[in-house]
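// run 5 | inverse folding | seed 20
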């Protein structure tokens, strides 16, 4: 009789280990979906608000590791200052969103905030962006992150990652699925995610896709992006809170 507790404990340990291995395997099969963007590019805002939000529909997020990289077409000058395509406000908001992603790593939480900010941008209400903290149920810790200088540290990290893209990004939004850039077909990301998934937990979002994905419109997006070379003639602008 004395051995029964030991057997039961061993059985529980076996079950827990098996469940952990199953969970780890499932997680490792997830598809990495990365968005390289800048906060005040209207085409990035449109993609986030009206298209990328689909990652949370019909269980798709269950097979996705969503990564948001707010740097875009910005660059660092020889004196260390940032130049952002849409000016100082964009440098500031890039850092705020980078801080939000870091402080609230759960994709559902930080995406809710970023979606709100980008929606404000589309609606020309950027003077109200700070309300997104309350509207998304988050605290204002990202502001402290920015004022402490850590937002700049994060942005330099994102700058380095963006500069190492292969092939280099030509515009934003620049969407990458498992290290493969979608180029002009970025709005069709759901189809690419589903095709890249190798696990057994196929979400409804993938099951309901048409047999042949429609990529015929991808060339139409050639002008609906913010190009890298449009940043080259800008002057230095250090991030600042207005």
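// decoded
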């Amino acid at each position: 009789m004395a051995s029964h507790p030991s057997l039961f404990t061993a059985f529980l340990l076996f079950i827990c280990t098996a469940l952990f291995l199953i969970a780890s395997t499932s997680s490792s099969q997830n598809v990495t979906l990365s968005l390289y963007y800048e906060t005040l590019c209207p085409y990035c805002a449109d993609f986030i608000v009206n298209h990328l939000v689909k990652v949370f529909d019909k269980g798709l997020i269950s097979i996705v590791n969503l990564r948001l990289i707010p740097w875009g077409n910005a660059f660092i000058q020889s004196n260390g200052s940032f130049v952002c395509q849409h000016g100082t406000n964009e440098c500031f908001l890039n850092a705020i969103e980078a801080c939000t992603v870091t402080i609230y790593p759960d994709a559902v939480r930080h995406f809710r905030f970023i979606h709100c900010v980008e929606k404000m941008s589309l609606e020309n209400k950027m003077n109200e962006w700070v309300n997104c903290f309350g509207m998304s149920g988050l605290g204002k810790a990202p502001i402290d992150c920015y004022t402490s200088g850590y937002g700049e540290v994060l942005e330099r990290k994102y700058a380095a990652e963006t500069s190492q893209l292969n092939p280099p990004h030509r515009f934003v939004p620049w969407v990458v699925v498992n290290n493969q850039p979608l180029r002009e077909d970025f709005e069709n990301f759901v189809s690419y995610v589903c095709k890249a998934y190798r696990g057994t937990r196929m979400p409804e979002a993938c099951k309901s896709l048409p047999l042949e994905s429609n990529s015929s419109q991808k060339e139409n997006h050639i002008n609906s992006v913010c190009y890298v070379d449009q940043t080259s003639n800008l002057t230095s602008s250090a991030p600042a809170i207005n």
